[in-house]
Write a structure and sequence with these properties.
This protein has 2 domains: about 160 residues, Rossmann fold (3-Layer(aba) Sandwich), CATH 3.40.50; about 90 residues, Rossmann fold (3-Layer(aba) Sandwich), CATH 3.40.50. It is an alpha/beta fold. The longest helix is centred in the last third of the chain and has 24 residues. About 35% of the residues lie in helices and about 20% in strands.
Length: about 350
């Protein structure tokens, strides 16, 4: 869906009119978050956000995948598979699946890390464990209580922040902010803006770490577009961030085309974009997630050839601090699970 513009403005008459619905939605969502989830038996780290739309979860999951592997872990990503038709549980297979099957984000992630897609997250946990996972990395699901999280790392964009800070449908929040803050173990702020400062201060005040990060284009992506004029298109939560990243990398963006998040591009739309670019001598460029939605089981179709994917990675200002946090959370999770399963030292257990 394309987010309403009023979500990202100061509260207006529209949002005020919807506040009663937001209060009802928030009460249900807040109560739901309090439920005790299923213990997966292995550590579960959740990457989520407070609101609908994009904030940078996918590059965060990829960054944490690298970090966990450096720690000697075997991570498996668990996703609901938003936008895909398969309910799962199923492991994403690039040779068999398209975005229409499992969703664009799982398909993109599966090029780097094993991804289990399951609408029923308990079934997804079982599948991930069957793949030898030592830790489950949940892509979204922060507000879903089905699986107990050992740590929740929340991603927020420093330019967009929380919009009007109202609960859906009056605004973009998925649940009342205070209840979400209380269940946040760490905050990841992406970018150099100031819109997330108040949230960062609230997390710091309750003793949670705040990690600053920024999206950095890969050298190969920048080199592929050097000295080229481009037509950039994207169907992600915040297309504007993509266009700004291109320009900040020294790339001349002549035309911008923004689509709704997870937009299912048709062959006709792509051919029209490519033709428009060709008429003006431009190179077509999009995000890796958008290109994933164009994949079929056989790869990128011939009618989408020529589109250049622009890859980015997430870099942290305090990578050592994030590593220490993740290692500590894994240790505490395993200690807790051991105590639960075997009893505390000195505790009498029935035979």
């Amino acid at each position: 869906m394309r987010e309403p513009a009023f979500w990202h403005r100061p509260p207006s008459w529209i949002s005020r009119l919807l506040l009663p619905l937001g209060a009802l939605y928030g009460a249900v969502a807040g109560q739901r978050m309090q439920r005790e989830g299923f213990d997966a038996g292995i550590p579960v780290l959740c990457v989520g956000n407070y609101h609908t739309g994009g904030a940078g979860k996918t590059p965060t999951v990829l960054a944490l995948t690298r970090l966990l592997r450096d720690l000697g872990e075997t991570p498996v990503v668990l996703s609901r598979g938003y936008g895909g038709r398969l309910r799962g549980p199923v492991m994403v297979d690039l040779a068999r699946h398209a975005a229409a099957d499992v969703g664009d984000e799982p398909l993109m992630l599966a090029a780097t890390v094993p991804v289990a897609v399951a609408r029923d997250r308990l079934n997804g946990v079982a599948l991930a464990r069957s793949q030898g996972a030592s830790v489950i990395l949940m892509d979204d699901g922060f507000q879903n209580p089905a699986v107990a999280k050992d740590a929740s790392l929340i991603v927020i964009d420093s330019d967009r922040g929380l919009g009007n800070a109202c609960v859906f449908p009056a605004g973009p929040l998925r649940a009342p902010l205070h209840q979400q803050l209380a269940r946040t173990d760490a905050l990841i702020v992406i970018g150099n803006g100031a819109a997330a400062n108040a949230v960062a201060a609230a997390i710091a005040a309750q003793g949670g770490p705040v990690f600053a990060a920024r999206l950095k284009p890969t050298d190969a992506s920048v080199a592929a577009l050097a000295d080229k004029r481009v037509l950039a298109f994207a169907g992600i939560g915040d297309p504007g961030r993509f266009f700004r990243t291109l320009r900040a990398s020294g790339i001349e963006v002549v035309r911008e085309r923004a689509f709704a998040d997870h937009h299912p591009f048709s062959q006709g739309e792509i051919e029209a974009l490519i033709a428009e670019a060709a008429r003006e001598g431009l190179t077509s460029v999009t995000t890796e997630k958008d290109l994933a939605r164009l994949r079929t089981a056989g790869g990128i179709p011939s009618w989408a050839h020529g589109i250049v994917p622009f890859a980015v990675t997430l870099e942290f200002d305090d990578a050592a601090g994030l590593r220490k946090f993740a290692s500590g959370q894994l240790f505490k999770a395993r200690e807790k699970k051991f105590s639960k399963n075997s009893g505390r030292p000195g505790e009498r257990r029935d035979p």
